[in-house]
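Re: beginner question about structure tokens

> Can someone show what the tokenized structure looks like for a real chain? I only ever see the sequence side.

Sure, here's an example I had lying around. Input first:
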Amino acid sequence: MSDGQARQSGGSLQAGAVTVSDVQELMRRKEEIEAQIQANYDVLESQKGIGMNEPLVDSEGYPRSDVDLYQVRTARHNIICLQNDHKAVMKQVEEALHQLHARDKQKQAKDMAEAQKEAMSHKLGESMSYSTPRGFAKVKSISPGSPASTAGLQVDDEIVEFGSVNTQNFHTLHNISTVVQHSEGKSLNVMVIRRGEKHQLRLVPTRWAGKGLLGMLKWVCDSC
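And the corresponding structure tokens:
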């Protein structure tokens, strides 16, 4: 076995570039090195069970003739080199696992931050959707017994929806008059703001003893 086959150049892994495949490759390399170390120990075992530290000369100082000195020296050298490689690979595995763990923590923190941001945005959207809208007209007076009175409308109610007219398409009080004229005897959905709270009412424009189809003697709008 040559030195080139036994060793692999080390080095730190590039930060942020580690993948699970990289870790798997490092583990494969670790197992390969361990197998090579064991193979070299098997060579020593085949030479009279000689280990890493037993002397290679006899009691008289002559090279031992009962073992293959070249194989023993080569195996010992390979084991030392492979152990260094093994240590380097284990360091890389540790670094890779640390980077993967740190990146997972960063991703979890980012996902949590985005989830919280989305939740806050959703909550803000709900808050805005449920906030009290501003009425486009305000009731100033109502005749007793009129359709408006029967429907439950009260003085100072702010109109935010009157049939098909709402805060988005309202221009003038003529818009409401047009809806009333085309809805005689039909139920209209009316939403008002009363003391800061929404109220849903059903108003049926009807001819009655008084003037008009509603009985609201006066109402005003700020934009008219």
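Each token stands for a local structural state, so reading them left to right follows the chain. Residues 69-130 form the longest helix (62 residues).
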